[in-house]
Amino acid sequence: LAEKKVLIVYAHQSAGSFSAAAKEAAVEVLKSKDCSVEVSDLYAMKFKATATAEDITGEVKNSEHFRYAEETKLAWDEGRLSADITEEQRKLQEADLIIFQFPMYWFTVPAILKGWFDRVLTLGFAYTKEKRYSNGIFKKTKALLSFTTGSQETMFSPTGINGDMNVTLWPLQNGILHYCGFQVLAPQIFWAPEDATPEGRSAMLAAWSTRLVWVWEVSHLCLWTAHIHSRN
Ligand code: FMN
C-alpha cells in the first residue's frame, strides 16, 4: 500500500486544550500506521485570516475594484500568490486526507480557520464553475471536521435548544468542503470535554484513535442525497 499523506489543520491557541490532545492523538496513531503527517498550527504560524490584496505579489489587475476571487485566480495562474497561501496549497494538494481540528466558535470554526478557507481555497486552485461538488477538484481527497464543543450532545439534537448539528455543519461540510469536491467523512465531535471527567476525556481520545486506524476503509457521508433528490 502506498504511504498515505495526512494534513491536519489545527486551530487552537492552547497546548493544554482538549483540541491539542486530539491533534496529538491523531499525529501519533497516523504515524504509527505509516502515514506521513503534516500539521498546520494556525495560531503558532500567526496565520493571516483576512482575504486582502496583500495576498498577491506584484500588480493587481483592478485596484479600484479589487475582486478577491478573480485577482487570486490570476495570481495563482501566474505563481504570484503569497508564500503562506502557496505553502498551504502544496500541503493540501499532496494530502489524501485533511483533518480540521478546532473548538466550535459561534456554531462554526474560529476566525483563523475561516481565514484559511477564504485564502487557501482559491478560484482555479480549489474550484471552478465547471468543477465543483461531485465533479470537484478535490474529489479524490477525504476531509473530516474534528471539533470540541461547550455544549452537550442533547443541546444539538433537532429538538435541543441549539437545533440539529447537521444543519449547523451544512455550510462547512457542503458549502465549503463538498463544494471543492472533498469526500466528507462523518464529523468527529468531542462533546463538552471541559465538563468531562479525566476518564471521560481519555475514552473520547481512545475512540478517536481507534476511528483513525480505520479511516481509509470508510466511505464518505451521504448528507447530500436528500438535497439531490429534492432537485429532481
Ligand atoms: N461551544 C458551543 O457548543 N457552541 C458554540 O457556538 C460555541 N461558541 C464559542 C465561541 C467562542 C468565542 C468561545 C471562546 C467558545 C465557544 N464555545 C462554543 C465553547 C468552546 O467550543 C469550548 O470551550 C471548547 O470547544 C472546549 O474545547 P477545548 O479544550 O479544545 O478548548
Automatic annotation (TrEMBL):
The Flavodoxin-like fold domain covers which part of the protein? 4-212
Task: State the compartments where it is located.
Answer: Cytoplasm
Q: Which cofactor does it need?
A: Zn(2+); FAD
Per the UniProt record, the source organism is Neogobius melanostomus (round goby)
Annotated Gene Ontology MF terms?
dihydronicotinamide riboside quinone reductase activity; metal ion binding; NAD(P)H dehydrogenase (quinone) activity
A Gene Ontology cellular component where this protein is annotated is: cytosol
Family statement drawn from the similarity comment of this UniProt entry: Belongs to the NAD(P)H dehydrogenase (quinone) family.
Q: What is this protein called?
A: Ribosyldihydronicotinamide dehydrogenase [quinone]
Can the keyword Flavoprotein be found in this entry's annotation? yes
Asked if the keyword NADP belongs to this entry, the reply reads no
Q: Which reaction does it catalyse?
A: 1-(beta-D-ribofuranosyl)-1,4-dihydronicotinamide + a quinone + H(+) = beta-nicotinamide D-riboside + a quinol
Principal location class: cytoplasm
Function, in words: The enzyme apparently serves as a quinone reductase in connection with conjugation reactions of hydroquinones involved in detoxification pathways as well as in biosynthetic processes such as the vitamin K-dependent gamma-carboxylation of glutamate residues in prothrombin synthesis.
